[in-house]
Amino acid sequence: MYYGLYLSASGVLANTHRQDVFANNLANVETAGFKPMLADVRQRPAESVEDRLPFRDRQPLLDRLGGGVLVEPRGAAFSAAAVNETGRPLDAALLEGDTFFSVEVGLGQGRTQTRVTRNGQFVTDAQGFLRTSNGHRVLGEDDRPIQLDTGAGRIEIDARGWLRQNGEDVVQLGVSRIDQPGGQLRPAGDNTFAFLADDPRLPADDFGLAPKSLEASGADPIATLMQVVSSSKSAMGNATMMRYQDAMIDRAVNTLGKVS
Amino acid sequence: MAVAALHAAASGMNALSTKIDVLANNLANVNTDGFKASRVNFEDMLYQQKVQPGVENDEGARNPGLLQVGLGVRVSNTQFDFEIGSPRQTGKPTDVYIEGDGFFRVSVGADRSPDGIAYTRNGAFFVNSEGNLTLGSDRGPLLDPPINVGAADEVASIRIDPVGRVLVTPPEGGEPEEVGQIELSMFVNPNGLMSVGGNLYVESDISGPPIDGEPDTDAFGALLSQHLESSNVDPVTELVTLIRAQRAFELNSQTIQAADETLRVVSNLRRF
Question: Which of A42, A175, B41, B50 is deepest in the core (most CB within 10 A)?
Fold first, then answer.
């Protein structure tokens, strides 16, 4: 009886976690270049299997039920999202899901960290550095921050990823390819992704880029809302099961075992 | 617990309502000459790490994934769209359109700009009672450097040529006389300019200092008189964005309801 109570409790915990993740995905449904986080669950092995304790009393009947659910650690879903045309000369959208722009993120006290982003909303600052809309410096092909002479004319990004001024190529955006980005990157806020271990970036010689466009959020509003609602209902169903089992235990203790 | 979901959804509603405010202002200014549309940029907030990447399990295998929950969304900034608006013919000789990236300079009070100078793309100039060229906005700021076309009975017609010279023809006819030169300014980072209303922008720390120059040189752009620059707001795009923002706002309110319901059920687990 208690066994079932814990199975249901694991269901409530796992599903409230999923609800948190999906709520964040839905909140970012208008964030350019956002990649939704995955929240999968996996079956938890029975306690005797999990603890590998052969000498413990086994419960062959209950062990078959397994041990409830656990949240499966997963990263973000890095498939390419829809591209919306904005008409702004410094907006750029990458068309393949495994290509990224490189940015330099300041960590304070002069330290910096290289991260990647899919958000192509670029602006120039007072010194002519190209920055993302969050203020991070954008790196060029040589992995150094791009600085432009903005007095020399209008700047635009073309389909090859070159920044052009007065019809001439000035500098190329640093676009790199990352194999299996889900296992190499972690979302770090500010529309950026940090490296999990070593720098996984490979030079991308041939990549698709849509100029004057932005990549929409990877979170689909309708599907994400369905996920929020279904995880909520799963949590509530499991909570109701807890109440039934509580009632059963109540009966067993207070009615069945009543001594006149 | 579902509390993170509540906060994430609330942050979404907050950010989206800012977006709707900005869109409403863009749409309200769809007919304002020289107006530049703004866009709201979003960014995701920090992530709460529940399982660090690469943690070893009992069997010594490394976990390839990671478990983290995002904490919502926030507005990173608003960004002007400095796309040049299309010229609109007015026939008025003191209406001027800039065919480039320059701004007109005007003198304003110290309450609006610390150095007394503001910048505008709206070239609807008037001649005031002293004969000075002023901007046709609520307080009528003077053009900088000031240009005086002379008393009304000495002026038959005014002409502004593409390089910015203001030419006045006297009533008795003859050669037009040059009474002044319109100057323009540009900024390294026009997105750093601060809107102060009245179609005016003022310099800020991040816009960089103004680069002054004359029309029809570098990227300043030549002047086209008898034309004004239409607002660059595209009503269709703005309306579609408004619909999307409003729907996303509603979706986030659904999350709050769902999270609230989960919390209610969980809090009612204990029976009395």
Answer: A175
Q: What angle do CA B55, B58, B63 make, to 5 degrees?
A: 30
Measured between CA atoms, the residue of chain A closest to residue B51 is A73
Q: Please give the Cα distance from B253 to B5 (Å, whole number).
A: 11
Report pLDDT for A137.
93
Closest C-alpha to A43, from A61, A28, A65: A65
In the numeric block, which tokens belong to residue B57?
């399990």
Q: Give the tens place of pLDDT for each residue, B82-115.
A: 889 999 999 988 999 999 889 999 998 888 888 8
Of B69, B76, B83, the CB nearest to A24: B69
User: Distance (Å, rounded) from C-alpha B29 to C-alpha B38?
Assistant: 11
Report how far residue A147's alpha carbon sits from residue A117's, in angstroms, rounded to the nearest whole number.
19
Q: Of all residues in chain A, what percent carry a pLDDT higher than 90?
A: 48
Give the CB-side neighbour count of residue A41, counting CA atoms within 13 A: 20
pLDDT (tens digit per residue) in B25-50: 999 999 999 999 999 999 998 888 88
Please enumerate in sequence order all residues whose Cβ is within 8 A of that of A115, keeping only pairs 6 or more positions apart, or say none. Answer: A102, A103, A104, A105, A136, A188, A192, A193, A194, A195
ipTM for the predicted complex: 0.72
Which chain A positions have a beta carbon within 8 Å of B216's beta carbon?
none
CB nearest B76 (choices: A37, A133, A228): A133
Instruction: Show Cβ contacts of residue A244 under 8 Å, excluding neighbours closer than 6 positions.
Output: none
> What angle (nearest 5°) sits at the alpha carbon of residue B91, between those of residues B87 and B97?
35
Give the closest-approach CA distance of A124 to chain B in angstroms: 6
Candidates A193, A175, A174, A169; CA nearest to A183 is: A193
Q: Is the pLDDT reported for residue B58 higher than 70?
A: no
